From TrEMBL:
<dbReference type="InterPro" id="IPR048806">
    <property type="entry name" value="ZPBP1/2_N"/>
</dbReference>
<dbReference type="Pfam" id="PF07354">
    <property type="entry name" value="Sp38"/>
</dbReference>
<dbReference type="InterPro" id="IPR048805">
    <property type="entry name" value="ZPBP1/2_C"/>
</dbReference>
<keyword id="KW-0732">Signal</keyword>
<dbReference type="GO" id="GO:0016020">
    <property type="term" value="C:membrane"/>
</dbReference>
<dbReference type="GO" id="GO:0001675">
    <property type="term" value="P:acrosome assembly"/>
</dbReference>
<protein>
    <submittedName>
        <fullName>Zona pellucida binding protein 2</fullName>
    </submittedName>
</protein>
<dbReference type="InterPro" id="IPR010857">
    <property type="entry name" value="Sp38-bd"/>
</dbReference>
<feature type="domain" description="Zona-pellucida-binding protein 1/2 N-terminal">
    <location>
        <begin position="38"/>
        <end position="137"/>
    </location>
</feature>
<keyword id="KW-0968">Cytoplasmic vesicle</keyword>
<comment type="similarity">
    <text>Belongs to the zona pellucida-binding protein Sp38 family.</text>
</comment>
<dbReference type="GO" id="GO:0006665">
    <property type="term" value="P:sphingolipid metabolic process"/>
</dbReference>
<dbReference type="GO" id="GO:0007339">
    <property type="term" value="P:binding of sperm to zona pellucida"/>
</dbReference>
<dbReference type="GO" id="GO:0044297">
    <property type="term" value="C:cell body"/>
</dbReference>
<dbReference type="GO" id="GO:0001669">
    <property type="term" value="C:acrosomal vesicle"/>
</dbReference>
<dbReference type="InterPro" id="IPR013783">
    <property type="entry name" value="Ig-like_fold"/>
</dbReference>
<dbReference type="GO" id="GO:0046466">
    <property type="term" value="P:membrane lipid catabolic process"/>
</dbReference>
Length: 326
């Protein structure tokens, strides 16, 4: 049975009929250095970095004689090619399967020669390029929602029964998405309606969360599980929104204004997205303005032990992505 039909039946049974969401990138996806200016960029967790070029865009358009390239990683040691680090003969760097511990300063020194045509005199020129790379992941979405229902009185068991039935219907509506309703609550208020008297209304609030029991089974061993859970929570939001839209339609159209005393208040549905970050990650709009909505690996000197949205200070932390202050 359609969920909105089920709730309609419950309301009629209860009351009967009544009144009324960085750097310069070329067309090939290369990231060039900028002399004297660190290039800041963000790499999604478990993805490959863009290709970093040990050269600025202006130099790349010129002839370069006997170029050599030395890359230094965040640990201040020279980088060499391996299964995770790819360095080409022309000084291009790509980091595969980027992790939070790989965040930090990557420095490349370009050395090349200038040759005077008339004397063949050679001069060695060196230029340094800095790239600040941060691992990030998408925030986990949840939604805070609020609705209102009219009621005959603020007393009696019918209000609590409606509240419990509504929660059960919404849980069933989104259970196949591994989402569920948490922290539900309601209060009854007297409301003065313009050109009408006082009426009783239930102000209902709840949160829709993508981590119902067994939610990891929906990830299918995916490294970017937040992509899947966020996709599911968006579907859950749309289903719930459609559910309450149907409530408004059935009461204000199908019954020709003859509606139960307990009914959904049209246009009362409100929804606000709430973001959280996994441990070791946080948001910092001031530091990461080019990725303000991202959960970025906590920098040295900070940590995040839970699903908060900010990293906390801890002077003893020396790594990126710290989950504890040790």
């Amino acid at each position: 049975m359609r969920a909105w039909v089920l709730l309609s039946a419950v309301l009629w049974y209860l009351t009967g009929a009544g009144g009324r969401r960085s750097s310069e990138r070329t067309s090939k996806g290369f990231i060039y250095g900028k002399p004297g200016h660190p290039v800041k960029l963000y790499v999604k967790l478990h993805h490959h970095s863009p290709v970093l070029v040990c050269m600025d865009f202006r130099r790349a358009k010129k002839e370069t004689v006997d170029p050599t390239y030395i890359w230094i990683g965040p640990n201040e040691k020279p980088l060499t090619g391996n299964n995770q680090i790819n360095i080409t003969k022309t000084g291009k760097l790509m980091v595969k399967d980027f992790l939070e511990a790989l965040s930090g300063l990557y420095t490349c020194t370009l050395s090349y020669k200038t040759v005077r045509a008339e004397t063949q005199e050679e001069t060695i020129v060196k230029q340094r390029y800095d790239f600040m790379i941060f691992a990030y992941r998408e925030p986990d979405y949840s939604y805070q929602m609020a609705v209102r229902f009219t009621t005959k009185s603020c007393e009696g068991r019918y209000n609590d029964l409606l509240f419990r039935v509504l929660k059960k219907i919404l849980d069933n509506l989104i259970s196949d998405l591994s989402c569920h309703v948490i922290e539900p609550s309601y209060k009854c208020h007297f409301v003065k309606i313009p050109k009408h008297g006082l009426i009783h209304e239930l102000f209902i609030a709840f949160q829709v969360n993508p981590f119902a029991p067994g939610w990891k089974g929906a990830c299918n061993d995916s490294a970017d599980c937040e992509d899947i859970t966020n996709h599911n929570i968006l579907q859950a939001r749309d289903r719930i929104e459609e559910f309450f839209r149907s409530q408004a339609y059935i009461y204000y159209h199908d019954f020709n204004k003859t509606i139960p005393a307990m009914h959904f208040v049209d246009h009362s549905f409100q929804v606000v997205r709430m973001d959280s970050c996994r441990p070791g990650f946080g948001k910092n709009e001031g530091l990461h303005s080019n990725c303000a909505s991202c959960c970025v690996a906590c920098s040295p000197g900070t940590f995040s032990p839970d699903v908060d949205v900010t990293c906390q200070n801890c002077v003893s932390v020396r790594i990126y992505g710290a989950k504890s202050c040790t």
